[in-house]
Amino acid sequence: MAILIVLQLIVSAILIGVILLQSQGSGLSTTFGGGGEFYRSRRSLEKILFWFTVILAAIFGILSIALLSAAS
């Protein structure tokens, strides 16, 4: 069970870092949807970061469920 906790901590730290790398703009206007662009395609690095975020979030969820079932 200690290995699962350590894995979850590592995955959560990496997930936070990847999410912070995805920041596209600054200011409050982009926070509330006023980015100004109508259509914007994702570049290759943005696609990789997006899919890496999805995979890490899924791993984090699986680890959370595994820890929950191991605790009971």
What is the number of beta strands?
A: 0
The helix content is: over 70%
Structural class: mainly alpha
Q: Could you describe the largest sheet, including whether it forms a barrel?
A: none
**Spatial gap, N to C terminus:** 12 Å
Overall structural domain count: 1
Order of helices and strands: HHH
Mean pLDDT, all residues: 83
What is the 3D shape? elongated
Q: Low-confidence spans: pLDDT under 50, at least 5 residues?
A: none
Strand content: under 5%
- Using only CA atoms, what is the Rg? 16 Å
- The total count of helices amounts to 3
Architecture overview:
72% of the residues lie in helices and 0% in strands. It is mostly helical and 72 residues long. The protein has one domain. The longest helix is centred in the last third of the chain and has 28 residues, at 44-71. The radius of gyration is 16 Å and the shape is elongated. The model has no long low-confidence stretch (mean pLDDT 83).
List the helices and strands and how they pair.
Elements: H1 2-21, H2 28-31, H3 44-71
Keywords summarizing the entry:
72 residues; mainly alpha; 3 helices
Short description:
The protein is mainly α. The protein is built from three helices and no strands.
